[in-house]
């Protein structure tokens, strides 16, 4: 079986410096959220310790931690370590501060629904509790549960997706929906990793993913760590590479999936789906259940993050439009690879 060398994206660091990704650790006012700083990859592998609402918010906003499931996990651990530092001793005041911190963290990025899902899940878990110490312990337990669950869900997505991959196939992917975007082996890249573990040889074309280069910096880096043959291509080469017959399947991740299957993912995903349809190549979206937002009937209601003009090269005096995500209509998606199977909406 192939040995995968995948990074630990998010964990809880206790005061002795031990890292935790499983429930069963006592909360401490000195515990911190520990993340791999993805803004520094691939040049440097540097970790960050975060313990205040502003630090956690800023790390999510600046994409030090990014990718829908990883943002969910980081916000959950972040909420727990922040709460463990609250001075309020009265249960009602403590809960009020928790609610404010939760909505502040949820406002860090608008598109990935896993962020709201994880924070709301942690708040719901402590709803019946009154003692601050009990609330803090439950918040940490729930956050580590979310991490553990994400690890399992990624593997299940990997198993369902790997069944679609035959030895020698080539996958094209966009942005980074791998281990760095989750607390497991990723979503879009999980089928590749599971296929590799099963002894299949899979090649990957990784779009560079303008403007922040998640594909060139992150996907290529983690695939290389795992020993997967990888080609980085510029975004504007993807359609040609598909038309040249070099790609058997496109697999991408998702930030939010509406009830009808319309899917928001990194800007540039929609044109890939159009090109794949034209070329007759299957186009899959891989995501856990926490990315599905059944409150939205279709993709028109998905909030799309617009980021700073500084991220795009531009001449002085010229305006910039920088949406970070686009929405791919369900009818361009062959199927969604989820933790409960390959489904068609
Ligand atoms: O802006 P990012 O880097 O957070 O965007 C990430 C993506 O678009 C991913 O494809 C998506 O979050 C799925 S991650 C498993």
Verbal overview:
The chain is of the alpha/beta class and 345 residues long. It has helices at residues 53-61, 68-83, 91-106, 113-125, 132-162, 190-197, 214-225, 238-243, 269-279; strands at residues 10-13, 19-20, 32-36, 47-50, 170-173, 203-207, 229-233, 249-252, 256-258, 263-266, 283-286, 292-293, 325-328, 335-338, 341-343. The chain folds into 2 domains: 10-154, translation initiation factor eif-2b, domain 1 (Four Helix Bundle (Hemerythrin (Met), subunit A)); 158-343, 3-Layer(aba) Sandwich (Rossmann fold), CATH 3.40.50. The protein contains 9 helices and 15 strands. The longest helix is centred in the middle third of the chain and has 31 residues, at 132-162. The protein is globular, with a radius of gyration of 20 Å. The relative contact order is 0.13. 5-S-methyl-1-O-phosphono-5-thio-D-ribulose is lined by residues 63, 66-69, 112, 175, 177, 181-182, 186-187, 214, 253-255, 265-266, 324. The site of 5-S-methyl-1-O-phosphono-5-thio-D-ribulose (MRU) has 19 residues, from helix 2 and strand 10.
């Amino acid at each position: 079986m192939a040995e995968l060398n995948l990074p630990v994206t998010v964990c809880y660091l206790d005061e002795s410096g031990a890292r935790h990704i499983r429930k069963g650790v006592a909360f401490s006012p000195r515990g911190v959220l520990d993340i791999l700083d993805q803004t520094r990859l691939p040049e440097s592998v540097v970790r960050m310790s975060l313990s205040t609402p502003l630090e956690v918010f800023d790390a999510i906003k600046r994409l030090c931690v990014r990718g829908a499931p990883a943002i969910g996990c980081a916000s959950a651990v972040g909420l727990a370590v922040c709460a463990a530092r609250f001075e309020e001793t009265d249960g009602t005041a403590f809960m009020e501060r928790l609610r404010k911190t939760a909505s502040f963290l949820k406002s860090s990025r608008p598109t990935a629904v896993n962020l709201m899902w994880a924070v709301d899940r942690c708040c719901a878990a402590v709803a019946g509790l009154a003692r601050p110490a009990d609330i803090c312990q439950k918040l940490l337990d729930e956050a580590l549960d979310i991490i553990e669950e994400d690890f399992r869900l990624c593997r299940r997505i990997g198993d369902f997706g790997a069944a679609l991959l035959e030895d020698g196939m080539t996958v094209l992917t966009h942005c980074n929906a791998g281990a760095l975007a989750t607390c497991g082996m990723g979503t879009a890249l999980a089928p590749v990793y599971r296929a590799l573990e099963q002894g299949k040889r899979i090649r990957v074309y990784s779009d560079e993913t303008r403007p922040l280069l998640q594909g060139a910096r992150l996907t290529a880096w983690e695939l290389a760590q795992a020993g997967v043959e990888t080609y980085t291509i510029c975004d504007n080469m993807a359609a040609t590479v598909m038309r040249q017959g070099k790609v058997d399947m496109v697999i991408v991740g998702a930030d939010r999936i509406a009830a009808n299957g319309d899917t928001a993912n990194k800007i540039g995903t929609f044109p890939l789906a159009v090109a794949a349809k034209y070329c007759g190549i299957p186009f899959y979206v891989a995501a856990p259940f926490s990315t599905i937002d059944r409150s939205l009937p279709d993709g028109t209601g998905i909030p799309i993050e617009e980021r700073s003009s500084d991220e795009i090269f531009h001449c002085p005096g010229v305006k910039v439009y920088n949406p970070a995500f686009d929405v791919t209509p369900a009818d361009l998606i062959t199927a969604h690879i989820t933790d409960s199977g390959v489904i068609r909406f």
